[in-house]
UniProtKB/TrEMBL annotation:
InterPro entries, alphabetized: Endo/exonu/phosph_ase_sf
Domain of life: Eukaryota
Protein name: Reverse transcriptase
Amino acid sequence: MLAWKLGFCFESIYVSKNQILGFIYLDPKHYPWLLSCVYGPPYFHEKKRFWSEFMGIGNKVGGPRLILGDVNFVLSNSERVGSMGKDQFLPFILQLIKGNTLIDMPIKGDNLTWDNHKEGHHHIKSVLDKALVNEDWLHIFPKAVIQSLQTSHVCKKIGATRLALSKWNREQFDKLDTYIGRLQLQLRNIQKMPTGSRSWASEMEADFISIPGYEEIRQALFTMGSFKASGLDVVRKDADFNFIMDNLVSKLHGWKFKSLSKAGHATLIKSVGLSLPVYTMQMIKLFKKLATKIYGMVRDFWGGLGFQRTLEMNQAFLAKWGWALLNKDNSLCCKVLSVKYLKGRPFLKCSYKNLDSWFWKNVVKAIEILKKGACKLTSDGKDTDIWNEPWVIHGQDFHPHPKNG
């Protein structure tokens, strides 16, 4: 991972599991230099191939260069405390560094950054974190210093993070444990209850299939209003769409308790809030009162700014089905509508009957929207009714109008 402060411009040019290469545009701004952050392979059989390819990339780029990171090699026996035997990689890397005219920058502080954490004569510490530069880079930054930092500050940050996570866990999920415990207690009490005779199911079934008597019918009729019809007509049609409002209310109320930016609110409204009624609006024409409520709730939640108007979206969805029929779309739905209702007639001249399906009625109601912009493109004119179909692009309502006289 490579991180930098604001105002520090880094352009990545090559990334692999062992290196990150990129140009630095900072000091001076118009003279970039190459930064190579590296983690050298620890295994001997991988080192020669990696460092040969690594140096080759830098030579192709050219210019000032800084190599920084855990290189996993030493440049002399003095950079190792303890014995690991003869280092077979040492002659190769010394020759490679010399051939590329690189300079090993001295490190201030404790440079023995690697420790095998063993005791006695097996204890080994080495200088594996290095900074290698060429003369061009050193000419730009002659006073550059490499400082070795202590790792204790990392431990402090990890400890502070642990405390912060513990506090967050208590605040967010402490009540959850109590709620789960209460539900588990209720479940145990239910499981301890004796098993009933299950006769209630039979009684309910008998009530459903029994023929109502005179008193039962009389009581049901007299509880209704004077101008109400018996049967399903007493149920308001707009009640069938209450689930849309319930879902939208639950979503918006949930978002109000979350710390979101303005952009976050807008994204949630567009991706979730306005998408909740989309499936219904594609098939059914919503009541104007319901569409106004949906739009008003989203607008008030945002703070006065509106998004797509629900009523216009609903009309556009239904008009889209009409447009598909005009273009003789090959979908299954359009095929069914064409065979059942069109029967060879032009769609713009269609009407609906009372016994037609509610979906077909809603599509036909959108014809007036299509008439405002639908114009037929003619070729040889054989399949065009020139007086009754819209085909004149620049004409009034796309229909031809004969001159008087």
